């Protein structure tokens, strides 16, 4: 199988690679990741030593910067409680945590969740957090620019490997909300 974007030596249906995914991501892939047909959820094997965006794009294809998205976990505080949410923005941008995220979640304060909290609550590795397989009760805020892309590369739950799926598929994931201006 050839990946619809990037220059990857090993691309396969994600359903054939559940043993390479973290348990929550593997469970979501088995369930179909929303309403996504299994043949449209692709796993590409990648070198974990070059998982950071700049090195990754330099190695696997310059065009990936405009077709890759980063998923980050935020902690929003209001009153005495904390709400966790995930935000998905293009890799070329950054999440507007103190503006759009804070307002959208109705929080007094919002910040990136500490690494241990993000990995512990998602069951995923730092640098590989993906919107596929997040806790079902979390809001998943997605920049509207992502939904319009034909294909988007995201983490796989591990630093090794990535998932590729159609941009429109993210809106069908549990807790998904399309948000204008999430990425700046």
From TrEMBL:
Chain ranges passing through the membrane: none
User: Ranges for the YbaK/aminoacyl-tRNA synthetase-associated domain?
Assistant: 49-169
InterPro entries linked: YbaK/aa-tRNA-synt-asso_dom_sf, YbaK/aa-tRNA-synth-assoc-dom
Q: Which Pfam families match?
A: tRNA_edit
Q: Per UniProt, what is one GO molecular function of this protein?
A: aminoacyl-tRNA deacylase activity
Do the record's keywords include Aminoacyl-tRNA synthetase?
Answer: yes
Give the UniProt keywords, A-Z.
Aminoacyl-tRNA synthetase, Ligase, Plasmid
Enumerate the Gene3D superfamilies for this protein.
YbaK/aminoacyl-tRNA synthetase-associated domain
Question: What is this protein identified as?
Answer: YbaK/prolyl-tRNA synthetase associated region
């Amino acid at each position: 199988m050839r990946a619809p974007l990037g220059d990857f030596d090993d691309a396969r249906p994600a359903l054939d690679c559940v043993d390479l995914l973290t348990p929550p991501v593997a469970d979501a892939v088995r369930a179909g990741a929303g309403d996504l047909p299994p043949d449209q959820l692709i796993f590409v094997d990648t070198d974990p030593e070059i998982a950071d965006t700049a090195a990754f794009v330099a190695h696997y294809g310059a065009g990936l910067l405009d077709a890759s998205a980063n998923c980050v976990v935020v902690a929003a505080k209001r009153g005495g409680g904390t709400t966790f949410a995930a935000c998905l923005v293009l890799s070329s941008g950054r999440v507007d945590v103190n503006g759009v995220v804070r307002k959208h979640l109705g929080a007094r304060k919002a910040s990136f969740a500490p690494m241990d909290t993000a990995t512990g609550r998602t069951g995923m590795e730092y640098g590989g957090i993906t919107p596929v397989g997040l806790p079902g009760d979390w809001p998943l805020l997605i920049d509207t620019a992502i939904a319009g892309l034909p294909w988007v590369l995201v983490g796989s739950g591990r630093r090794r490997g990535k998932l590729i799926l159609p941009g429109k598929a993210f809106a069908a994931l549990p807790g998904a909300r399309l948000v204008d201006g999430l990425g700046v």
